Amino acid sequence: MLTCPVGQVHAGPALARNLARRVELWQRPARGTGLTARYRLERSSSLLYEPLRTQGGLVFAPGSLELRDDERGGATTRLIGDALTIAANDPALPANPAAVGDGAAGRRWLRDRLFALFAARDAQALLADSHASVPRGPGMQIDLVPPRNHPARRQIRQLRVRLEPDTGEVVALELTETSGDVVTLTLSEHQRPS
Q: Which distant-in-sequence residues (6+ apart) come within 8 Å of 163 by Cβ?
């Protein structure tokens, strides 16, 4: 795996070119200011007999992200600015959403990456507080890792971003937590308003 701390200009030329190509590809979809897509989410953990799976709809606008599970027994997760709330979709359950707050450094680090990724505009925002690397092998991928001394490193080991090679849209995110749990968000049916 090729790695490069953000801002390290004396990295090898091959790495700089590979990372620059992926960032250019990622910025292609930046036509509108929002994004809607379908998602499949899978969480794997050593504490579970089998992975948890759900699917639903994603809606992104600058400063907000919503993931709404399709199932009645699912939930709606909203990130608006610094606030994170999770509310049950079932109307029989209490209507008051659980306020999670801006909480841990890992959650803030992940929120900043997600907002930057789906906006597809600002490379500095995407790469801030991260070591960026280009994994070897096929596919257009970027690995983002909180720096070793960053407090987010206590919760997050790595965020792998997979890009669609023609359009540059984010098609999958794989979050590896320090506990070893892996959360994979696979996106399809991207729509960006003009």
A: 22, 25, 26, 140, 141, 142, 169, 170, 171
